[in-house]
Amino acid sequence: MDFEAARARLIEHLSTEIKDERVLAAMARIPRELFVPEGSRHAAYEDRPLHIGFDQTISQPFIIALMTQALELKGNEKVLEVGTGSGYQAAILAELARLVITVERLPPLAEVAEKVLDSLGYENIKVGLAEEVLGWQCEAPYDAIMVTAGAPRVPVDLLAQLAIGGRMVIPVGSRYIQELCRITKRKGKNIVENLGGCRFVSLIGGRLGRGISNNYRGIRLLNGNRKGVKMEVLEAIKTRRSIRKYKATPVDDRTLELVLEAARWAPSWANSQCWRFVVVRDPGIKAELVNMAGDDNPASDAIRNAPIVIVACAELGKAGYKGGEQMSDLGDWYMFDVALAMQNLVLAAHALGLGTVHVGLHFDSKRVARILGIPEGFRAVEMTPLGYPDQEPKARPRKELSELVFYDKFGLR
Ligand SMILES: Cc1cc2nc3c(=O)[nH]c(=O)nc-3n(C[C@H](O)[C@H](O)[C@H](O)COP(=O)(O)O)c2cc1C
Q1: Structural domain range at position 59
Q2: What is the mean pLDDT of the chain?
Q3: I need a labelling partner for 265 at 20 to 30 A (CA). Which of 36, 164, 186, 281 fits?
Q4: Average pLDDT for residues 365-393, to the nearest whole number?
Q5: How far is ligand 1, taken at its centre, from the CA of residue 344, in Å?
Q6: Same structural domain for residues 36 and 184?
Q7: How, if at all, do strands 125-129 and 99-104 pair?
Q8: Do 189 and 58 share a domain, yes or no?
Q9: Domain-located, residue 411
Q10: Model confidence at 45: pLDDT above 50
Q11: What separation in Å is there between the alpha carbon of 349 and the centre of ligand 1?
């Protein structure tokens, strides 16, 4: 695999959102493939997190770049990183600051990271094993602190190790979802800013129960339109349009999760939840899906260009059944249940400023099963691209209610 070319493509992709040239240049110099397990090297330059063992991950490059950018390093700083993990983030920080102290809780990870960093010749990185108190007190204060694990609050112990005027970037929130916070330490009230959603493994140790909470000031939202989070249901229903042109802007993991959550909460036959969703990001697989839909499908470019395609599948013999027996004369209700889930997904996506379009034309469920490796007993039902819209289509007309609705008996208006 040509890692250099893959790295260049990743940097190009990051540069649409990350504006700090020094951060991009640092990431362009560092061989990320050396920081991931051998089996995942082919994916080292995909913009997604990867497992590195011990239930830990190396973060998505975009989040790494965003967090690093938020530290606003100029070159002369002493930086503390909490959570060495693979060591990749430490390498980036070392390219941008004078000295990096990085602390890891898991000895095997610290050992591997130290070896890789040594092999790359970094002399301004010290790897330490985490102690009872969070951070690394003996070298404090730090001009910048980066925390690469989620915490319920900003830990007081870490804040105490930050110099006045220094910046700390930390994911704050629940175990599953956090907001990326930047805290600028002031003599008076600290400045707390929200940089957007993210998902990290949990920070362990120290006095996590205490600390300042994330009551943000100066909120900056990622990926544009998040005003829609509060969009009314009826407004979302009425303003949603099928979107067939997409920007290349990636969809961050947190937003994707919100969209999938909406599908998860759809009603289903006896709560049987027959649906499954395959999130496709791989351009090769997307190309196969485009081939199937055919160039005469108005949505074919959308499938090709949107950063994500979601394929909805169903487990057969669940919806409409009880004890293996069909409960109505309509057979398997999987189309119905998947449609409910997908429409929840589509509306949530719209409320978050994303576009979708249900794609059914030329949908060949057997072919999709082969492309995606869908097992027997499941069927692919439909797919939708998911991404930021690059068009504002007009509403297509709808039949009048008087034509659609009858009262008491079919045909009675
Ligand atoms: C089950 C289903 C299948 C669809 N398949 C396609 C498709 O294959 N390609 C496409 O461009 N649009 C497809 N659409 C989108 C419809 O054309 C679109 O919803 C309709 O024209 C109304 O426009 P609107 O969604 O902008 O309100 C599909 C919609 C549904 C509900």
Answers
A1: 3-213
A2: 89
A3: 281
A4: 96
A5: 15
A6: yes
A7: parallel
A8: yes
A9: no
A10: yes
A11: 16
Pocket of ligand 1 (CB under 6 A): 241-242, 244, 297-299, 357-361, 393, 396
Q: Is 66 inside a domain boundary?
A: yes
Q: How far apart are CA 107 and CA 203, in angstroms?
A: 16
3-state secondary structure of 317: coil
**pLDDT tens digits for range 258-290:** 899 999 999 999 999 999 999 999 999 999 999
pLDDT at residue 209 greater than cutoff 80? no
Q: Specify if 92 maps to a domain.
A: yes
Do both 55 and 191 map to the same domain?
Answer: yes
Q: How many domains does the chain have?
A: 2
Q: How far apart are CA 43 and CA 15, in angstroms?
A: 19
Nearest CA to ligand 1 atom 10: 299
Q: 354: closest CA among 232, 195, 233, 228? A: 228
Residue 193 located in a structural domain: yes
Q: 102 is written with which tokens? A: 């990085």
The larger pLDDT score, comparing residue 355 to residue 209, is at 355
> Which residue's CA is minimally distant from atom 18 of ligand 1?
242
Q: List residues with catalytic annotation.
A: 59
Strand locations in 206-353, DSSP E? 211-212, 275-280, 308-315, 321-322, 325-326
Check residue 197 and give its pLDDT: 64
Question: pTM of this prediction?
Answer: 0.52
Tell whether the model's pLDDT for residue 208 goes beyond 70.
no
Tens digit of pLDDT for each residue in 63-93?
899 999 999 999 999 999 999 999 999 999 9
How far is the centre of ligand 1, averaged over its atoms, from the C-alpha of 36 (Å)?
41
